[in-house]
Predict the structure of Aldo/keto reductase.
Amino acid sequence: MTNLEITSTLPSNQSVSVPRFGLGVWKSRPKECFEAVKSALSLGYRHIDTAAIYGNEADVGAAIKESGVSRSDIFLVTKLWNADQGYDSTLRAIDVSLSKLGTDYVDMYLIHFPVTGKRNESWKALEKIKNEGKAKSIGVSNFMVSHLEELLKETGTVPAMNQVEYHPFLQDNDLKDYCIKKGILLEAYSPLAHGQKLEDPRITALANRYQKSNAQILIRWSLQAGHVVIPKSKNPVRIKENADVFDFVLSEEDMKEISSWNENFRTCWDPTSVE
């Protein structure tokens, strides 16, 4: 983990390499999203994460086209929204997303949330989508161990990735260990806990010692912990700052210290209550 770069990847169980670091565009309004994606790609980001429910797929696609970066060099992710879950509706939803993105494939397609009664049928549709080449790989988001166990009983395809909220203040080690055991990449969204813990004096002390920002300490911890990380920002200055984490290494002692901060502090929706 010491020689990481912005283009470093992790191999997935579906023969697709996933860039370790990317840009999330949740809550980025259309024009903001367009500029954010262009800025990120100009800085060397190659992993862009959007979703149907974000309402900005078209702007992501337009920014990619204007960026001058080859589509084949970009790892593009979008997600199936809850209202579109179910077998036939999932097959329709991917076509809508691809049309908005202006591409004939995504590098990974995720089930956004484990909707009870529909998630398994949605997954079967994702398998078809992958077989047809509309997605190079498929995975899930917000799935807990129970959801993954159920899914694996119903299918022969293990998700390539599970995208969940993960940061030092919310560490589900049981989920992480399960994903490692099954060969599922863990992707950390909200790695900065939406800024709600950013001024914690323990982070500030580390930031001062490494001469980095508090946000950079949290992002670097997540990278060294083995996660795929997609910090969200629409501010070009922050997008650049978030990427400036490849010129230092947290010591083993500091990694252990940060890993002891868990307090089950969840800032987003809680999938643990879904059956």
Q: What stands out?
A: The radius of gyration is 18 Å. Strands lie at 9-11, 17-19, 23-24, 47-49, 75-80, 108-111, 138-141, 161-165, 185-189, 228-229. The chain has a mean pLDDT of 96.
